[in-house]
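Bench notes, bay 3.
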Amino acid sequence: MATTTQSAHETGEPSGNWRAGVVGGSVGALVMGALVLAMNPPTLAVAIPSLYTLAPPPNPGLGMVVHVSHGAVLGVVFAALVGALDVERPTRLVGAGIAWGVATWIGLAALLMPLWLSAVGSPASPPFPNFAPPSLLWHGAYGAVLGAVYVATEDAL
């Protein structure tokens, strides 16, 4: 008598499309950066590059490079999260993007950034915590664009 035993093994293949996350996060960060430049240029010109002691003097171009780099990395994290949570419907992906934008606003912009800027002695160090409504708008826009671009590119990349 022969017995067959089968077992299911995960392939170890990550879910979520990290490439779409990079593209979505980069485009979202560019849109957010444009909003920041229109509404509060010192945030992009001084505060963001100050995180890495790259300002002062104010440098909006360098701030945008740093900001888009952050957006790309956070886009990869978004891709991993939606993959792990098995989010597939386009409307839910865009909603997840907005939620991710709000989460980054709370955790990174409102809580971590003021502490980090204070630690590096930045002249642009905001109070802690810094739950600034314009920043919520910017991060929500980042997330909406991230989610929409992710939907548009996940099957192509």
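Next record in the batch:
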Amino acid sequence: MAETDKTPEDSGEDAPKKSSKLPLILGLVLALAGGGGGFFAVQAGLLGGAEEGADEPAEVEEAEALPDLAFVPMETLVVNLPAGAQADHLLFTAQLEVEPAHAEEVANLMPRIVDVLNGYLRAVKLSELEDPTALIRLRAQMLRRVQVVVGEGRVKDILIMEFVLN
């Protein structure tokens, strides 16, 4: 019985047997061959990766021409906010989107536009200025006031470039 109970120390085997690297190398070679074969099959059109007529350039649809517009810049308005507000000033800069034929007329009326917007922004409640969702309503109100000053059909939109409470 003593012979069957031998330990590796008794038999002289100090290190365990090392496994073969053949399965690892074989797996790597097969993976590379499979990847190369898949790439070839897709490029050759065998697996539907390439469509017939893919060599021909696709017809480009001509984009619709952009409308003819002009933008009239406004000077930056600085509005003092009442005491107790989180900020001291409102910085407001915008551009007016107009028909090119009316750009000069609108630019000539800029002092009136600035006056109307300055008066409106000073009259707006502080809670509305601080509400992040109120900008859409304020923009619509300002556009309507500008359209009243310059006349219908001259100003299409007001683009707010800067609306900063600091």
